[in-house]
Amino acid sequence: MRNTSCRRLFILISFLMAILSVSSTAAQDKDLVVRIARLRIDSAQLDNYKAALKEHAETAIRVEPGVLTLYAVYEKNDPTHVTVFEIYAGPDAYQAHLQTPHFMKYKTTTKNMVKSLELIETVPIALESKFKNPN
Amino acid sequence: MRNTSCRRLFILISFLMAILSVSSTAAQDKDLVVRIARLRIDSAQLDNYKAALKEHAETAIRVEPGVLTLYAVYEKNDPTHVTVFEIYAGPDAYQAHLQTPHFMKYKTTTKNMVKSLELIETVPIALESKFKNPN
Q: Is the ipTM of this complex over 0.95?
């Protein structure tokens, strides 16, 4: 009798853990924070801005587990137009990112270089990649 | 005498191969085609459009070695605004992509869903990522 109860309890616990595991994975996908930053940069300070942004992106990806992608580019036809495509593991990872020394350094350094900043919250349709940065 | 000549020839060949190897890597980085597509979609056909784009992105990344990244998102504040961040291994990979059956199918299927399309050629500042698509 006691053995049967134990077995039932064990099966119930395994079942609940399986459900929790599946819902946790689903929540992880759903929680991704994906956004696009569009910036206009002072043309006289463009090289300094690009160096600061590059350093910031490399550091954030290296040291923050929740910063998953920072793709930063400028437009060929107007190099003062910069776009950053950003993926964070979730809202907590994004909030933690804003408090890091490297993010605060980037914001302070570039404060007078950025003429405008538009932040666009997005929802993924497809996030397909096999790109490996050779650096 | 013959041994010395052989050794010199060997050193020369090694040296040339090292130069070729370095310049090939540099060309690979430099040749990346990175662009942003900004689209406006007919709101009545949005779900069909998103399904077509998702299928196209998944197929292109799976079957084309030179299609490295297709990140497709829509804006939370206006789901008819779609952005695709695209990385190709080089101009040849991009031209080959345009001739594939899945790309032609995507273009035909979505022809009457896309109200406007802006293609922006870009230059990378930083392409940092450790994101793994769980799908």
A: no
